[in-house]
Amino acid sequence: MCLSKVYLKKIDPESLVLEEVFRIAEDNGTILVRSIFGEEKKLEGYSIGEVNMVDNYVILMDAGDIKNA
Amino acid sequence: MGEKQKVSAELSISLEQWAEESLESIGIFKNKSPEFERLQKQVIRQLRTVYSDKAIDIFLRTKDNRKIELPDGFAKVTGPCGDTMQIFLKMDNGVIVDSSFQTDGCKPSVASGGMVAEMIKGKNIDEVRKYTQQDVLDSLGGLPEENKHCALLAINTLKEAIENFNKKK
After folding, report:
1. Which terminus of chain A is more exposed, N or C, with fewer CB under 10 A?
2. A55 vs B52, higher pLDDT
């Protein structure tokens, strides 16, 4: 897959978590995002809301929001 | 089950596998992500929006993604995107009796290579040398704008393979 941009809740420059992401690991409500530049971000209480393989982005949502959707 | 339904069922299974592989490639695994099935369905919907059934069928099920030993015509071309395509031709009396391709490129490159290999089999070389990028795109039912260069890479590699055959004659 091409490298993705990862956003929190919506596609918006201010919601951008990380660019050039190659790995998104999900484990017990924790999301670990890694970029090819070695940057890493850990987000608690979130889940993967949307993966877009065509436009190459991922949106993370509050875990509760996804369960209630 | 009719042939059309059978193909459609096979395509669905192949798409599920492709979506699964795509998600796994970024670290989202079936046994780890509680959202896996929902995300897999999202990806399948996206793929079906962007690619035609023909393109999906070719890049998931082509049997021409292989090397031909001692080919009569061969070329290896690297496109501006960095993807490399190889085309192998086996000839008999001016007719392409077998053809295959190999690529390290993305799925649209695989589709383009597979389409070219399928299009040229059993055809006379004089007819094949007239094929264009547009012929490949038309046969695939189109490709997204950003992937159209994959069809050009396949056709350029084919032309080089024909040149290689002509030089050997």
Report:
1. C
2. B52
CA atoms of B129 and B122, how far apart (whole Å)? 13
pLDDT at A1 over 50: no
Query: Chain B contact for A69, CB < 8 A?
Result: no
Across B36-94, the runs of DSSP E, i.e. the strands, are: 73-78, 84-92
With an 8 Å Cβ cutoff, the interface of chain B facing chain A consists of: 19, 22-23, 25-28, 32-35, 39, 42-43, 46-47, 49-50, 144
**Closest residue to A48, CB basis, from B19, B33, B49:** B33
Strands in chain B per DSSP E: 73-78, 84-92, 95-103
What is the rounded CA–CA span in Å between residue B133 and residue B95? 21
Tens of pLDDT, residue by residue over B67-125, are 999 999 999 999 887 889 999 999 999 999 999 999 998 888 999 999 999 999 999 99
Cβ-nearest to A51 among B28, B34, B50: B28
